[in-house]
Amino acid sequence: MPIKSGDFVIIDYILKVKETGEVFDVTMEDQAKSANAYSPQEVYEPKLLVVGQSWMLKGIDELVTGAEEGQEKEADIPPEKAFGLRDGKRVEIVPARQLTSQGIRPIPGQRIEVQGQLATIRAVSGGRVTIDYNHPLAGRTLSAKVYVRKNVTAPEDRIRELIHRRVREVPKDKFLVSDLGAMVSIQMPEEAFTLENIQYAKKGLAKEISRYFPDVTTVQFTESHTVKAPAPKPAEEKAAAPPAEAAAEQAPAEAKPEAAAAKTEKKSAKAKKSQQSEQ
């Protein structure tokens, strides 16, 4: 079935700057290494995309829409569907002391944050600094190759994918999701109890569930602590001894000649007594 807007899709991808062939984003470790773009700090795994929700570049959304599960798609993405066109109004020159007073030592090419916005220092000269607020890849055409791994349809699986998007340190299958009605209950595994920023992750997750599951009014997170191991089960009682009749039937073959001998002796005594009576 073709993928449409609103679908939960698991994808891998390779993104390059078309002009240079440089790989700047990739989800597969082997591809990252072969392109000399590997970073030990990066987590390489397929990503969740909710189609049409601006989670990724518009060009990626359009490339996936209409595709089939298991399909590979490749296309060039123009700047207006990637990181936008360059805007000269987003470049400014400021006194160097404006940055040094904030503890920033300006160096060309450095990425900094200014008043909540990310920017790139383009030049430092004569006590002045040129700051560019455009995205570093603004104005660039990209080459994209996307692998559609899976179209996630079950509500429980969709919620687990949303969880994994925010809590990557714990395997998603360890989160138990139930009561998919007005209330969603999520049983948290012990590995997640003390994760840094777990409370922010739960708050964000609750908002996402409310957004993508309109019938849900409550999201409940539960924790269960194992304080001691359960007691072992008692050993099964030995089977009762078989009744006498059964025991007799199960007597060893060596006992049978003795029984036969006793029976023969009894017949012989009876015949002798009968003979004496005739006399």
What is the C-alpha radius of gyration, as a whole number of Å? 39 Å
- What low-confidence regions span 5 or more consecutive residues with pLDDT below 50? 251-257, 272-279
Number of helices: 7
CATH architecture of the largest domain: Roll
| First-residue to last-residue Cα separation | 109 Å
What are its keywords?
single chain, 279 residues, alpha+beta, Chitinase A, domain 3, Thrombin, subunit H, Alpha-Beta Plaits, 3 domains, five-stranded antiparallel beta sheet, four-stranded antiparallel beta sheet, 12 strands
What features would you describe in this structure?
The protein is of the alpha+beta class and 279 residues long. The chain folds into 3 domains: 1-85 and 137-153, Chitinase A, domain 3 (Roll); 88-132, Thrombin, subunit H (Beta Barrel), CATH 2.40.10.330; 154-226, Alpha-Beta Plaits. It is 27% helix and 26% strand. It is built from 7 helices and 12 strands. The strands form 3 sheets. Strands 1, 2, 3, 4 and 9 form a 5-stranded antiparallel beta sheet that branches. Strands 5-8-7-6 form a 4-stranded antiparallel beta sheet. A hairpin with a 2-residue loop joins β6 and β7. α4 (155-166) runs antiparallel to α5 (198-212). The radius of gyration is 39 Å and the shape is globular. 15% of the residues are buried.
